[in-house]
Structures are given as C-alpha cells and as structure tokens.
Amino acid sequence: MANLKDIQRQIKSVSNTQKTTRAMKLVSTAKLRRAEELAKRSRLYADKMNQVIAEIAGRIKCNKVGGIDNRCFSKIDNPKTVDIVFVTADKGLCGGFNIQTIKAVKKLLAEYKEQNVKVRLRGIGKKGIEFFKYNEVELFDSVSDLSSRPDKERSDSFIKSSIEEFKDGKIDALHMVYNGYKNMITQELHVNKVLPVDADQFECNEEPKSILEVEAQDEEHMLDSLVSRYVEYAMYYSLIDSVAAEHSARMQAMDTATNNAKDMVKSLNVQFNKARQAAITTELIEIISGVESMK
Amino acid sequence: MSNVKLEILTPNGEIYNGEALSVTLPGEEGEFGVLAEHSSLSTLLEAGVIDIEKEDKSVESILINWGVVQVDEEKVIVLVEGAVAIRGENESEVATALENAKDLIESIKDNNPAIASATARIELAAQNLL
Questions:
Q1: ipTM, 2 decimals?
Q2: Given the DSSP bridges, would you call strands A118-124 and A81-87 parallel, antiparallel or unpaired?
Q3: Which chain A residues have a beta carbon less than 8 Å from that of B29?
Q4: Looking at the 3D structure of chain A, how many domains does it have?
C-alpha cells in the first residue's frame, strides 16, 4: 500500500491541476462569447456573399452571360499546382480541434499526391505549422499569430498572393481547411474549394428569374474585384469562425479535464483514508500484542 | 406603387433590412437609382452614400466604402465592407454617427472626387435629421 505522504502529495497535485483547468475553462467561456458574437454577425454576410458568387458562377457556366472567360469561374481539369490554406489554433489543450484539421489536410495531400499534383501548403496557426514541420512536410508559407487574433488586414495580405497567383495561372486551385463553429458543443470541419468557384450545383435548366447584366466593358474588372473580395472575406471569415470553434473546443476539453480531476481526487481520498485506517489498525495491534506479551 | 425590398449587409451584421420607396446607389460608373421592379443587374459600388427613401418619404443616408449590389425584380441586396448609417434618436447619437462616418472617410485614403462630395452629403443628411 502506498505511503500516506505520497498519496497526500498526489491529491495536492491533482487538485492544483483542477484549479488550472477550471480557470482555463472560465477564460474560454468568456472569450467564446465574444468570438461567437463576431462569427454570428459575419455569417449572414458570408452566406450572402457566397450566394452572390454562386449565382454569378452558375450563370457563367450556363452561358447566360456571353463571352465571359474568367479563370476564377472556369473549370480546370488536370490541375498542376494547388494551394491548401489551413487554419489551426496557436495553442493546444483544446481536445481534437487541431488534429481534426490536420487530418483533413493530410487526406487532401494524399489525394493530390495520387494525381501527381504539386501541393503548396500555407499554414496559419502554430499547432498546425509545428505538426507539419515535425513530420518534415514542407510548408510554402506560414503565419503563426494570426489565428488567435484575426485581423482583416493581415489576413488579406496573406491570401492576396494566392489570389494573384491563381489569376496569373501559377496555381490551379485554392482550398481552405479549417474547423468552424457550429454550436457550443460541436465544431464543424470545413474543407472548401474556394477557387475556382464551383458551379457544379447550379442547375442550368431552371429558368432564371432574372438575368445578370453587367456593363460590357467592365465585366472583367468587376468579376476580378469581386472574386478578390470574396476570397479575402472567405479567409477572414474562416479565421473568426475558427477562433470561436477553438474556444468552444477548449471549453469542452477543460470541462472534461476538471471533471476527471474531481473524480481522481475522490478516488485518491478513498485510498488515503484506507491507508490511514490500515496504519492505525497496525499500530493498535502492535500495542495490544505488546501488552499481551507482558502479562 | 410597390416598394423595394432592401437589404444592406456588412461583415458586422445587417445595417438595413426593410422596405423603401427608392434607393440611390453610388455605382462605379456613376450614381443610379432603383425603384421597385427594376430589371436585374449586378454591379460594384464605390465609396459614397446610399440614399434610401423610406415609405414616410424621409431619406436615410448610409455611407459605404466598397460594395457589390444585386438587383432583381423583387429585392435589392447590397453587400458592403464598411458602412455607417446616419441615424439616431437625438442630437448626440447623430453626432456620433457623423463622427464614425468621418472616420470611415478618413480610412478610405483615396483622392476620389466622389469622396469629397460624400463628406458634404453626410453632413447635409445629419443636419436634416436635427
């Protein structure tokens, strides 16, 4: 049976850990509320933006708008180089949050490898970057303190090079992988193909209620500018969505950790009491047998 | 005459959602007005002022820095990046809105003549409110 002192030390250490995890949970709850608010407000805008883009893509695909040949909206067969942007947290202790994203990226990497496509990984978030560095997977580009504090300007300048290179034909697709916020207890993994804009779901035979009319001379310019904004916003939105998800994941992980610590302290206490009882009993027996032998 | 359904969305949420008699938008090619049953079009907006004529004939002005608009027969959806509505219950609220609008104009950092006129227009709109 373990020494009394040892058990006492263990109890103390576990309850200290419990204090830390509880504090972390509280911090995450507070941060989550703010992040969630931001993500919710942006979701409406992001959804509408997607809708507008999808509609334009659909119309271009169905040739409702004649003569538009924009790379961002055309289907590219046999891609040669693709960009994958992933967003993970800067910190750990949030359950499977980061590893889920990493797994999705790895799956995508394997798929492209089969097709002999060159993949350039662009990472945001320390955890993901560390993982790929450790596994000796080359990262094309990485930023490490953007995911904990999303900033529109920095996210724009990060994604801008991908947009430009796509337009110049240096890359043939752009994917974004991130873990998004669904509700307080669930996160949702998003693997989005941002460029070229996917028009597959758009039904051509459906008679459109309206026709897209863009001024002929500036349609190229309009689409270009619109697509840039769309991708920039998609990037920024994935960052804020990811922050909200990170906090909810951490809150959950820390809640479980606190509960586990509580259970552990309980069982250690039982063990401690048993050991104490045993020690007392042994002592008593020793005294009694000592007295017996003196008779 | 029927009304236009108008939605103006910013990354920070909705700034206007409701019906209007007409809406004037600062298009890239110049300002244009939209009434109900306007034929559909999509175009970009540049920095400027959106004027919304409401059902009670009052005009609300919203300053924007960039946007895209989708008009169809039923509704008008405006997606903007930054926007400040010149509105408020009392003088101080209007003054704050005006202050925010001026900050937004500052941040545009563009020597576009449209922006110079935008400053004048929001001030006028604020005065009309008081």
A1: 0.75
A2: parallel
A3: 215, 218
A4: 1
What CATH number does the domain containing A66 carry? Answer: 3.40.1380.10
Domains in chain B (CATH in brackets) are 1-130 (2.60.15.10)
Which range of residues forms the domain containing residue A150? Answer: 41-250
Task: Tell me the chain A residues in contact with residue B73 when contact means C-beta distances shorter than 8 Å.
Answer: 209-210
Strand spans (E) along B4-130: 4-10, 13-20, 22-27, 30-34, 41-45, 48-53, 59-64, 67-71, 75-80, 83-86
| Long-range contact set of residues A214-222: C-beta below 8 Å, sequence gap at least 24 | A214/A65, A214/B41, A214/B42, A214/B43, A215/B29, A215/B43, A218/B28, A218/B29, A219/A65, A219/A68, A220/A68, A220/A70, A222/B28, A222/B42, A222/B43, A222/B44
Q: What is the pLDDT of residues B13-22, one digit of tens each?
A: 788 888 889 8
- pLDDT of A176 > 70? The answer is yes
Residue A186 CA to residue A180 CA, distance in Å, equals 9
Question: Has residue A161 got a pLDDT over 50?
Answer: yes
* Chain B interface mutation, best of A36, A50, A70, A215, highest count of B Cβ atoms under 10 Å: A215
- The nearest CA of chain A is from the CA of B100 a distance in Å of 19
Q: Is there a domain that residue A185 lies in? A: yes
Q: What is the pLDDT of residues A200-222, one digit of tens each?
A: 666 665 555 445 555 545 667 77
Structure-block tokens of residue A58 = 């659909």
Query: A38, A238 in Cβ contact below 8 A?
Result: no
Contact state of A213 with B42 under an 8 Å Cβ cutoff: yes
